[in-house]
Amino acid sequence: MEKKVILVTGGSGLVGKGMETIIKSDKREDEDWIFLSSKDANLLSKEDTFAVFEKYKPTHVIHLAALVGGLYAHLGNNCDYFRSNVKMDDNILEACHQNKVKKLVSCLSTCIFPDKTSYPIDETMLHNGPPHPSNAAFAYAKRMMDLQNRKYNEEHGCMFTSVVPCNVFGPHDNFDPLHAHVMGALINRAYQAKENGTTFEIWGTGAALRQFIYNLDLAKLFIWVLREYTEVDPIILSPNAEDEVSIKDVAMMILEAFDFKGEVQFLTDKSDGQLKKTASNAKLRTYLPQFQFMSTRQAIRETVQWYVDNHHVARK
């Protein structure tokens, strides 16, 4: 039996930790999983990247590592987001090629799709127009992953592909109120408001619509992609379009999970960002028609409980 050595970059982050949790109950005898953190290698360095590939000799790679952040982290930092992600992704792709990795699965995001488009968006629409200005640099950097996957396949026969998740959240998320994605930031603010007896603030009007996926659900789907998916074309990993919820409704679910009874204020002078980016999971459903996603409400309850129990060690 040929052993698969599966290297996961960004293994200590939100999705990597979810994957590690799932693998504990779904590990196969022919698989060795290695979860890297930034302490193991600086993936912005080509030398460090190639050294870690030489050390572990992976046959398969899941590339999660990225410079990421929420709306307010991106504003004013677009140069850093572009340069860091392009450099890191290029190092990983070339290391996979030079080390004859059998399969690479990289992580994109629905936030990289065109800003002005018809809905729901699907995999064929990725390059159809400019992304939303608020995260344009990150979006263009990640779009290049799809281009490179195709060119490495055409020129070298590499099996490089990518997945496109919607908004991910769950245990081990980043809960920093300024740099986190919306779910983590709101959970942190709700915790602080309840602890301190202060007003709970929602940045923006709360009208923006989003699809959310629990990190354990995404982990299961990522593992399926690694084992079973054979297309170079990306695949959207998202709950159904009708499961989309407003930021206001998400905030209310979070307050419900905390049993928060205090004052709530919308800071309408703050940006809402892209008002919607509804994604179609029709392609996923052709492969996995019976896959059950955890409801956003239940996943929020579980994430809030994890945050309360692990507040002292959570990223915030």
Describe it for me?
With 316 residues, the chain is α/β, with parallel strands linked by helices. Helix content is 41%, strand content 15%. It contains 10 helices and 12 strands. It has helices spanning 14-26, 46-56, 71-74, 78-98, 136-156, 182-196, 215-228, 247-258, 282-287, 296-309; strands spanning 4-9, 31-35, 60-63, 103-107, 160-165, 167-169, 200-203, 209-210, 212-214, 235-237, 245-246, 264-267. A 6-stranded parallel β-sheet has the order 2-1-3-4-5-10, with helices on both faces. A two-stranded parallel ribbon has the order 6-9. Strands 7-12 form a two-stranded parallel sheet. Helix 1 (14-26) packs across helix 7 and helix 6 (182-196) crosses helix 8 (247-258). The relative contact order is 0.14. The mean pLDDT is 93.
**What's the multimeric state?**
single chain
Spans with pLDDT under 50 lasting ≥5 residues?
none
Strand content: 5-15%
Instruction: Name the strands of the widest sheet in spatial order.
Output: 2-1-3-4-5-10
Our measurement of the CA-to-CA distance between the termini, rounded to an integer number of angstroms, reads 44 Å
Q: Outline, from the CA principal axes?
A: globular
Number of strands: 12
Estimated radius of gyration: 19 Å
Structural class: alpha/beta
How are helices and strands ordered from N to C? EHEHEHHEHEEHEEEHEEHEHH
Mean pLDDT: 93
